[in-house]
Amino acid sequence: MGKNHKSEDHYFSSQPKCDDQFRIVKAHLQDRNFEFLTSSSVFSKKRVDLGTSVLIDAMVLPQTGSVLDIGCGYGAVGIVAAASNPKLHVIMTDVNMRAVRLARQNVKANRVGNVQVLYGYLYEPVENLQFDCVLSNPPVSAGMEVVKAIIGSAPKVMAVGGKFQMVIRSKIGAKTLPEIFIDAFGNCEVLSRKSGFRVLMGST
């Protein structure tokens, strides 16, 4: 919101200019079939990307409470989290208004009622809320400063005992990101290493 981004038509643009080119992506995630409506100018429009799948397989969710999917895209991570446990309240955010619209449609299409989708930059839409779990497949193409901001600002919206989980390509963040996690949380755990990705977790 009000931030400058590198490309008008990239997936982290707030208002993509190119026309919608819709498609349906089917995926089998956590023993359930999902269908997601995607379009141009959103991340991984042709398939659920491998990093997202690795995060979904590894994510540690609370039994009850609130979950944030930050930078949700068309909603795969948050929707699967919500579908896995109706006792959770899931909020998904994205700076890309097209992604927000798609995520809202995908919430309805996949019949998950415990989800809210908000538009805004990083944590701005939820700055007054507290979460038991924060999930992120970060927009690395937006630059590492954005990735660092997602990690560094997470504790401000997390409850005591909350868990922040981020998937990253091992060759990009294996050495640098654990230090940022430790600065933010005082700890860093590797939840998963798979297919060139790893899922890192910091706990408050």
By secondary-structure content and strand pairing, the structural class works out as alpha/beta
Order of helices and strands: EEHEHEHEEHEHHEE
Order of strands side by side in the largest beta sheet? 5-4-3-6-7-9-8
What is the highest CATH level, the class? Alpha Beta
Hey, roughly how much beta strand do the residues contain? 25-35%
Q: Helix count? A: 6
Mean pLDDT: 88
Unreliable sequence segments: 1-14
Q: Can you tell me the CATH superfamily? A: Vaccinia Virus protein VP39
- Termini separation (Å)? 27 Å
Largest sheet: 7 strands, mixed
Shape: globular
Number of strands: 9
CATH topology: Rossmann fold
* Proportion in helices: 25-40%
The second-level CATH architecture is 3-Layer(aba) Sandwich
Mind explaining what this structure looks like?
The protein is 26% helix and 31% strand. It is of the alpha/beta class. The protein has one domain: 3-Layer(aba) Sandwich (Rossmann fold). The strands form two sheets. It has a seven-stranded mixed β-sheet, with helices on both faces. It has a two-stranded antiparallel ribbon with strand order 1-2. The protein is globular, with a radius of gyration of 15 Å. The model is unreliable at 1-14 (pLDDT under 50).
In short:
By secondary structure, the chain is of the alpha/beta class.
What labels would you give this structure?
alpha/beta; Rossmann fold; 6 helices; 26% helix; 31% strand
Explain the layout of strands and helices:
Blueprint: E1 23-29, E2 32-38, H1 50-58, E3 65-70, H2 76-84, E4 88-94, H3 97-109, E5 115-119, E6 131-136, H4 144-153, E7 158-169, H5 170-173, H6 177-185, E8 189-194, E9 197-203
Parallel strand pairs: 3-4, 3-6, 4-5, 6-7
Antiparallel strand pairs: 1-2, 7-9, 8-9
Helix pairs in contact: 1-2, 4-6
